[in-house]
Amino acid sequence: MEPAQTALPSADPWAVGTFVLYLAAMAGIGLWAARFSSQGIGQFFVGGRQMHRIVVALSAVVSGRSAWLLLGVTGLAWTRGASAIWAVAGYTIVEAALFLWYAPRLRRLAGAYDCVTVPDVFEARLGGGKPLRLVLVVVILVFMIGYLAAQFVGGGKAFAAGFGLSETNGILLTAGIVLGYTALGGFLAVSFTDVVQAFIMLAALIVVPVVAGSHAGWDVVFRTLGQLDPTLLDPIAITAGAFLGLAGIGLGSPGSPHILVRYMAIADPRQLKTAAVVGTTWNVLMGVGAVMIGLVGRALLPTRDLLPGADTEALFPTLAQMHLPPIAFGVVVAAIFAAIMSTADSQLLVAASAVVRDFWQKVLGRGTDERGLVRLSRWTVAALVVIALVFGSMADRVVFWLVLFAWAGLGAALGPPSILMLFWKRTTAAGAIAGMVTGAVTVVVWYFVPPLKAAVYELIPAFLLSGVVTVMVSLRTRAPDDLDARWSALSQETVALDATSE
Predict the structure, then answer these.
(1) Long-range residue pairs from 165-169, CB within 8 A, at least 24 positions apart, any chain
(2) Which residue, 212, 260, 381, 472, has most beta carbons within 10 Å?
(3) What is the pTM of this model?
(4) How far is CA 52 from the centre of its chain?
(5) What φ, ψ does residue 266 adopt, rounded to 5°?
């Protein structure tokens, strides 16, 4: 089979029109949600903890996938072949477990103590006061800004590959779109746009490989892959270090506040079993679709010079443009932005809540007017967008690896302490602080030491060290005097303690 030549990006009016309709729908949801979200920071940041199980399931899943799935994993599968599936398997298994066992305990604790943010939950369970909150705020902001910057870079890549804009203009446009409806509608707007975006993402990830593979002929696709490199079709053709790195990606989920806050927002923790089924189904289908795009794309575009800018992360929009009519291609570009925006908006809210709720209100003791706090939150969202744009302009513009670094930092710093505090009664605030610092520092050091970086993904050792240090320090420090009362909130079978459920 002769390699296909990629078409130059073009702004087909039908594709652009489809994409604009999608943006208008997202803006409409933001405007609709603005009135509810303006009532107070509980509504703005966590939707009043009254979200439906399907909304929580889809929002939790797509907010964790981001441009990393549609641009990063598809590019990884182009490079590595079928072994990229282990990245999908890792987070799918971990998040199914979180839905079933971790999330119900988190939600019960959040309801019992009227928690709005993840730091609220830590303090409700462990005490620790201002020192614990400050460490949490710093960790969240440092790594979340990098994560957010990666989403804007992903938007720039999508605009460049899809509509021929410069990457810089694409990044600015992405940031402006996300800022608009997030600042207006808060958590409610973010969650409902996530639901719409979940369906768009799933449709695009299934349709593109099916259509492209059918056009070329599946027998030709698999034969070509075998001729290029037989290991491309073998999911176990992978080194032990690479396997641990890919499968271990899932360890970042319990440390990602933009995922955890979804669990806190569900109306009734007993609904999380249904959410687990829906969310896991979505994770499996989207992940398999992304890997198939990489495989089909490698067969049709076997060398990097056939991709715009020789960039494997441009594979998805390029393949869609080659094989879909303009309107369908517009939907695919919308799907890429759905992935980007479903994560970026969630991260913006988490970062803004760390500044407004945890630092301004709880650490500094400022702000009691709920509507005033919402206004401050909106201005904070805008400031964080600017900071993320500056960071993105200086960072390495590779979405996959930039996301993995931020994902590792959050996962290693917050993951082990959060798991231990929910399932081990003896966990202390001092232990959690020590674990967070250890996890964050280990990720940074490991990432910037080439021999360590080459050995295994930094999340793995950092996660383990964070857990060990949390246990060791907890055993040598004192738990809160009212530990039994704090612990009992985790085992409540109802949400009777949650005033918002009345």
Answers:
(1) 167/397
(2) 260
(3) 0.84
(4) 20
(5) -65, 145
Separation between Cα atoms, residue 276 and residue 116, nearest integer Å: 22
pLDDT tens-digit profile of 121-151? 999 999 988 999 999 999 998 888 887 887 7
**Could you identify the residue written with the tokens 């593979």?**
213
Q: Residue 113: phi, psi to the nearest 5?
A: -115, 15
Q: What is the dihedral of CA 383, 386, 390, 393, to 10 degrees?
A: 150
266 SS3 class: strand
HSE of 175 in the Cβ direction (CA atoms, 13 Å)? Answer: 26
Query: By the 8 A CB rule, do 367 and 40 touch?
Result: no
**Do residues 427 and 109 touch, judged by C-beta distance below 8 A?**
no
pLDDT tens per residue, range 179-203 = 776 766 666 777 777 888 889 889 9
Alpha-carbon span 218 to 146, nearest angstrom: 39
Q: Distance (Å, rounded) from C-alpha 305 to C-alpha 310?
A: 5
DSSP state of 314: G
Of 311, 278, 270, 237, the C-alpha closest to 96 is 278
CB atoms within 10 A of CB 20: 12
Question: Nearest-CA neighbor of 457 among 234, 240, 145, 235?
Answer: 240
